[in-house]
Every structure is written in structure tokens, then in C-alpha cells.
Amino acid sequence: MLDQITKVHDETRQGEAFAPAADHTQTYNKKFYIESYGCAMNFNDSEIVASILNQEGFGATRNMEEANLILVNTCSIREKAEQTVRKRLTEFKSAKKNNPGLLVGILGCMAERLKAQLLEEEKLVDLVVGPDAYRSLPGLIAAAETGHKSVNVLLSREETYGDISPVRLDNNGVTSFVSIMRGCNNMCSFCVVPFTRGRERSRDAHSIVREATELFNNGYREVTLLGQNVDSYYWTSDDDSETVTFAMLLEKVALIHPLLRVRFSTSHPKDITDEVLFIMAKYENICNYIHLPVQSGSTRILQLMNRTYTREWYMKKVERIREILPDCGLSTDIICGFCTETEEDHQETLEIMKFARYDLAYMYFYSERPGTLAARRFQDDVPEEVKKRRLAEVVELHRSHSLESMQQDVGKTFKVLVEGTSKRSDADLFGRNDQNKVIVFPKEHYQKGDYVMVEVISCTSGTLIGKAVH
Ligand code: SAH
Ligand code: SF4
Ligand code: F3S
Question: Alpha-carbon distance 242 to 8, whole Å?
């Protein structure tokens, strides 16, 4: 099914299993295997879960066969995401036949949405744990080990896991995610996240700065501050003596060290302020790249989506970004075929794409999610073949824009943070420039974690190809 078309997108990092280096696991007497689906926040949550489990004597393994506990951290954003997980859970269930003591648990958004259903009715899992209940995992595992029902899907207004140091599972040792908030208060009508992740809450600013500092001291050179809506970050200390906005937080993290790059995701067009843009302009190590999901180019559809901005407001925001940050990379999310979308609405989406000329876009067709405002209020009335055709048009237009954006970079020189060896050739390294574009270049004497000035010689639609300038 043509559900999503992307290159490297958070939501498409489906089913990756991660564990730290093998020797790290040897001090543990039990082993867990974890697969993560969905967005970067979910992957970061798996690292929090790993930290909690390590305390309990469980070490992570990449080898499912040797695990005593299999966990699947799941996503509910589109139907397809849930189907993939269901298939995987059925496979795990049959793995239990050869390994009778094996426990299988479901974590994350699908656990929250379906609650006890997968345990009680479908008997697919032994434990069900929602995104705010990971601290109760040890007790739930103990209960499941003695054959008891193990479900905790309580959402919290306070939980941020701020004091837990995530165990880095997907580890290139150079770039890392840091969650700065949880939940979402926005209620976009198509979206399941407010139901699966609960109310928005911001994490203690000091714990964020501490975590980013530790990462830098351990050799990391880039942090991405994560939240569903980072621009509404707002933290107040318990005694009300200190208040930190997103712009202030960005500055604090940027000041840790000039060699630590700072990125963030995701911005809601209604909340990103000039203040944030000016802080981005002020610090060289805050990357000039903004993910600004538009969803649709039609004001009527945006209203039905409850996005709270109009087409014109969005376009002004893009103009303001270009004014304050002339070379800022811009990416977006687009949903095709939302309820009642007409051909004219669709044309308006194509038009706004021509206006914004996104460097990167994540494009989906609308997938109705049970319980959301749209599912309750509107009919999912755009036929699937129309959704697919519109999505294909959006994808094709975007391809031409991204290729054009890549071609414009040929001849330019960028500062690249090296993330590792190129997948295609051991003789090449790859990294990203400020604008988040991937650049591949010959290794020479450079290493992971280095900043290298690279001149772009050619490009494909997804990658810049260059050589280091000395
Ligand atoms: N908090 C972020 C992104 C959340 S989910 C934001 O507000 O931008 C990532 C993307 O998935 C959304 O931006 C949207 O484009 C897409 N999405 C969310 N719900 C969807 C649905 N029901 N059908 C199709 N795409 C959806
Ligand atoms: Fe979903 Fe909207 Fe919140 Fe993003 S801002 S998580 S799309 S409700
Ligand atoms: Fe999916 Fe939940 Fe993230 S629904 S996109 S894993 S917040």
C-alpha cells in the first residue's frame, strides 16, 4: 500500500532492533530484545526503557533467540503502522512455542490505544505498557512472570522521565536525540497522538542541559531536541523562580559548546516565534533547518484539520524564516485526501509546495484513526484511488523541488559533521550539512565526529557528493 513515501523519516524507521555493544550485556543475567516503530520520540523512549531494565538486571540483546523478554515499542499514527506491528506480534507469539518462559510485551502508542485488548481478547502479548508507565515495568514483568495480567496504560500529567539517563541503543556515537517534552495539546483532528501520549508537559530545563552536556563530554557532536510541538516548550521551576521558553532552552543548549550542533523537531507553524528564529541566527551551532509541517495548502481543509492557521499565515511564516535565516533548510509533512478534500483543495496544496519549495517532504495519504476528532465528525469520503493519485502528484512535484534544491548546492562548500562510513563504499564517509542534507565524500584521513569542509561536486535527488577542501 502506498501509505508513505519517504527516504529517511522518523515515522518510517520501522522495526529496528537495537542494543549496545555485546560485551555490555554480559554482566546481566536476563536479556531483553526491543524493536521500535514510529517517531524519534518512540526510539528515545526505548532508550529510557533500556535504562530502567538495566537497573533490573536485564541487558539488551540484538539476538531475539537469546531473549527472556521481547518488547515492541509501537506506533498508531496510521493504520499501516499498526498492521506491521500486529504481524510482528504474531511471529513473536509463535516464537514462544520454542521458548516457553519467553515474555512478550507491547509498549508505546498502540499499547495506549488498544489497552488490554491485545492481552485479554487477542492473547497476543503478556504485558501492555503505555508511554507514561515505563517506571512500572519491573513490577509488571514480575507479575507477568508469575502468569498474572500485566497492564498499565495510565497517562500522566507530570511524567517526563527527566531524571533517567537513556541508554543509547542506536549508537553512532556522534548524533543523539534528547526529549524535551511529552504529549501534545493540539488536537489536530486527524491525529491520534493526543490520545496515545496525553497532555503536553515540559521537562526540567536543567536535566535537558545536563543530558546534552554529558553527551558532548562522551564525544557526541549533535543533539536533536525532541517534542511533538517543541515551540510550545515552557518549563517553570517548582518555586516559580525560573521560567524557560523554547528560545531560551535552545540558547542554553547552544552555549554548552560551539562544537555541539543543535537541531530540533517538530515545529508547529502557529507556535514558532521570531525569538526562536533570532536565536537560530545568533548561534552558528544551531542548525539552519526547520521541519514545518503544512499538512494541506487549503485553508478550508486546514480548518477541518484544526491546525489553527490559514494558508496565508503559513506562507507569511515561510517568508519570515527566509528573511531571518536566508539559507535555512525547510521540510514539511503533507496529508493527501483528508475528509472532503476536493480537486481545488489538492491544487492549493501543490501551489503552496511551489511557494515553499521544500528541501524534504514526508507525504502520506489520510488514514482514519478511531477516536480522533475527524473520525467522529467527518466522513473519510475521498476514495482510496483518488488519495493515491493525489499523493503520487504531490510526491512527483516534491521530487522535482528536492532535486532542484540539491542541484543548487553543487559548487558550494559546507561544513559537514561526519556520522560514519557511507553505506555504498568503505572508501567514503557520510555526514550532514547545517541544512540537514546528506553529503558523501572520500574518507582520506577524516573520522567519525570530525567537522570537515566539503565542496559539492555533484548530486542525486537524495544525496550531495563532494570532496574535502583542505
Ligand atoms: N507533532 C508533529 C508530527 C506528528 S505525526 C507535528 O505536529 O507536525 C507526523 C505526521 O504524520 C504528521 O505531521 C502528519 O502529516 C502525519 N499524520 C498524522 N496523522 C495522520 C493520519 N491519520 N493519516 C495520515 N497521516 C497522518
Ligand atoms: Fe498530532 Fe497535531 Fe499534536 Fe502534531 S501537533 S502530534 S499532528 S495533534
Ligand atoms: Fe507514532 Fe506515537 Fe510517535 S503514534 S508517530 S509513535 S507519538
Answer: 38
For ligand 2, the distance from its centroid to the CA atom of residue 457, given in whole angstroms, is 39
Report pLDDT for 28: 83
Grouping H, G, I as helix, E, B as strand and the rest as coil, residue 190 is coil
CA–CA separation, 329 and 264 (whole Å): 13
Is the beta carbon of 295 within 6 A of some atom in ligand 2?
Answer: no
Residue 184: CB partners within 8 Å, gap ≥ 6? 191, 193, 194, 197, 200, 228, 229
| Residue 170 reports pLDDT greater than 90 | no
CA of 32 to the centre of ligand 2 (A): 31
CA–centroid distance for 110 within its chain: 16
| E strand or H helix at 35 | strand 30-36
The yes-or-no verdict on residue 442 having pLDDT over 90 is: yes
Ligand 3 center–CA 427 separation, angstroms: 37
Q: Which ligand is nearest to the CA of 364?
A: 1
Determine whether the shortest distance from the Cβ of 39 to ligand 3 is under 6 A.
yes
Ligand 2 atom with least separation from CA of 333: 7
Q: Phi/psi zone of residue 290: left (φ > 0), alpha (ψ -120 to 50 degrees), beta?
A: beta
Q: Are 45 and 131 in contact, with CB atoms under 8 Å apart?
A: yes
Q: What's the half-sphere exposure (Cβ side, CA atoms, 13 Å) at 187?
A: 9
Q: Do 153 and 112 form a contact (C-beta atoms < 8 A)?
A: yes
For the entire predicted model, the pTM comes to 0.94
Distance 78 CA to ligand 3 centre (A): 9
Q: Which residues pair with 452 in a beta bridge?
A: 416
Of 176, 245, 249, 169, whose CA–CA distance to 214 is shortest? 176
